[in-house]
Amino acid sequence: MTDQAATTALGRPQRSLWGDVIRQFLKHKGGVAGLVIFLFIVFAVVFGPYIHTIDPQYLDIRNKNLGPTWEHPMGTDNLGRDGLAQVLSGGRVSLAVGIAAMALSLLLGTLIGILAGFFRKLDGPLMRTTDLFLALPILPLLLVIILLFRDTLRSAFGPETGIFLLIVFVIGITSWMNTARIVRGEVLAVKEREFVLAARSIGTGSLKTIGRHIFPNVLSPVMVSATLGIANAIITESALSFLGLGFPSDFPTWGRLLYDGANFMTLNPARVIWPGLAISLTVLSVNYIGDGVRDALDPRIRGR
């Protein structure tokens, strides 16, 4: 009797790994709420400019420093630029930086973690390098790198593309360490399991063993790190922009909007409230998604 026939005979529906993961995630109220909020923010920043069609760089000096109105729901700045249009435009850049930097740090962390955990000779050098990066003061290091290479990349790729590449690069290469350590620990445990030992005993090569047996079994911490990495990258980009070392003033991001609005906080509080609220909601929603994914992938909880 096949497994499917046995399952049908017992009257129980057939279950799959990812089906259990999705069901467990949907039971996590915080994760579902975070996913709904994050999808709403993504939808707003991607499609919002097609609904709210005001140019974020359009100057309307007669209507400067306005509070919320029907025409300008988030008010205007000291040059009369629409606040909602700038928040939507800045959200595109902030989310793009967060996702791109997360992808880079995840690639580096996963690669280094797998190599360190699987190859004993590489474990010592790679982990000492990881410890070295963890010991560095991240924010001063970011400031130094940006000050050294900002003008060079701006002249090579343009002011917007150059600073985008630089910020993604510096955030990515300074945020991979925790992922590497977590993945290394998982690889050390997985490579001693019977199916991996059996694969190696029949002559399966190292690369094939990693691709077929090791990597699929360390996806759980990688996915959790991915969600949390987006939040960390958005916060770091916002901090750099708030310090005046991010994107130029005519290329808004949420952090840059905070920086530009800080001097007008008493005159027009909405200039810092809305971008600050956007950053807070995005980071909180991503963190809740990470909690939900972590619980859904936990084998002690999944399948109950």
From TrEMBL:
Source superkingdom: Bacteria
GO CC entries: plasma membrane
Membrane topology listed for this record: Multi-pass membrane protein
GO term, biological process aspect, one: transmembrane transport
Membrane-crossing segments per the record: 32-51, 95-119, 131-149, 161-183, 214-235, 272-290
Domain named ABC transmembrane type-1: residues: 91-290
Record key words, sorted: Cell membrane, Membrane, Transmembrane, Transmembrane helix, Transport
Subcellular location, record wording: Cell membrane
Gene3D superfamilies given in the database record: MetI-like
Chain segments annotated as coiled-coil in the UniProt record: none
SUPFAM superfamilies found in the cross-reference section: MetI-like
Predominant cellular place of this UniProt entry's protein: membrane
Family of this protein: Belongs to the binding-protein-dependent transport system permease family.
Protein name: Peptide/nickel transport system permease protein
Protein species of origin: Maritalea mobilis
